[in-house]
Amino acid sequence: MSRRKAAVKRVVLADPIYNSTVVTKIINQVMLDGKRGLAENIVYDAMVQAGEKLGQEPLTALNNAMENIKPVLETKARRVGGANFQVPMEIKPERRQTLAIRWLVEYSRKRTGERGMANKLAAEIVDACNSTGGAVKKKDDMHRQAEANKAFAHYRW
What we know:
Layout (H helix, E strand, L loop, with lengths): L20 H10 L5 H19 L3 H12 L3 E8 L2 E8 L2 H18 L6 H13 L4 H15 L9
Antiparallel strand pairs: 1-2
């Protein structure tokens, strides 16, 4: 970590169809080898499929899924007197969103049973809206870990 000034946050432009920065960030996370056009097609197809399955607007479905995935607490390692403790801490909103997007795409890629990334991403969005699926399970595991280490909360810095 740099001891100089903090890194400047880059501004992400909103996507042209839904006018949402969250969609742009998901596209950036899905994108491999700089193939933005392919990543856009995947994300837009997945959002339309998820919206149809849930009977909602695609952006509403995505926002509901993101709210169900976003974690509130995480544990960070803190060294106190030669021992490492997992200290539960609240997460800043920016990091919550980043983790949610990362988990959504990661668990979409790991899915089996569906063919094509668009179908996998759509299924993960639908599962997240219904509070099931890998990304929501990851959030629950993180909260459980923080709850288990609540005794070390006084080591917060």
